[in-house]
Amino acid sequence: MPSSFRIVVAADDTLASHHAVAFAIDLCSKIAESELQVIHAVGLNPPGTSLLGSLDRTSNLEIQKDAQTTARSLRQVLPEGTEVILKESYEPVQNIISEFVNENPPNMLVIGSSNRTGLER
């Protein structure tokens, strides 16, 4: 049995990301035996080493709460059975996405553009 064509889309709550998700959903519907995964990467503030550490922890709680809200919003527009992967780390988002893609190479990666530099090969 042939393996499925795996499409991964990196998503957040930006307009560019919404377009990327819509594109990936449409593309997946046109490719037989395809599978769609959505990764929502969240860069947390590094643990504080000073008196401001408690502020960083509070900020991270808000960041994590927003990430959960975004993941729920994504699940509402995705086809049933689409896996939403929430990855959190104390590093930049582009590094989180790169690491995920390198560890789990998809057949295709879809990312919306926000005119920023980002992923490297």
UniProtKB/TrEMBL annotation:
Domain of life: Eukaryota
Ranges for domain UspA: 6-121
Matches recorded under InterPro entries: Rossmann-like_a/b/a_fold, UspA
Pfam families per the UniProt record, alphabetical: Usp (PF00582)
CDD domains reported in the protein's UniProt record: USP-like
The protein's name: UspA domain-containing protein
